[in-house]
Description:
Layout: E1 2-6, H1 7-15, H2 22-39, E2 42-47, E3 56-60, E4 64-68, H3 75-84, E5 91-94, H4 98-106, E6 110-112, H5 114-128, H6 146-157, H7 163-166, H8 179-190
Parallel strand pairs: 1-2, 1-5, 2-4, 5-6
Antiparallel strand pairs: 3-4
Amino acid sequence: MYLIIDGYNLLKTMLGAQESSEKKKSGLIAALVSYARRKEHTISVVFDGGLTQHLSQEYYGTRVRVVHAGYHKSADDLIKKLLHETKDRECVLISSDNELIEAAYYHNVIAVDASAFAHVLGEKEYKKNAHQRDATLRKLNEHAEHEIDELMEEMSRNIPLKHEEVGLRRTRARTTQSKYEKRIMKVLKKL
């Protein structure tokens, strides 16, 4: 599955009111690399700005591409272009931006709210490290730097771990689902 992620949108969702920094951005990228490897997804993370005027890309392994839109283009415009290019490919947009969600719907792409994906990302890390539940900092990745581990620990504290904590309520299920609802369920199971 191919995921297009609105980078700063997801980062702000995970950090809450905290300011994003290059250190925290690197921690998010490290978490996404781990997630992509584990789930065998291909991910494009798009951020506003960058070091140059034009689009720049960095690859982290074979599964994660980090794209900076540059000074003259917004990440939203670049994401819309990527959505347009995803014909005949199973794709999911991760963003809470209503304009991007509408663009995804127009291109027949499933959109997942950034907070829901942050929950999934945090819950997977939590389950993976279930045997290390003490109050001290713990190593989340053997190859990561200490700063990234600290960031991942900090970010995971703000993410609810159970569906009940998120406030999801069960409603009476209909006997049949529409094709669109079936597609959404299929995609959510793969996340």
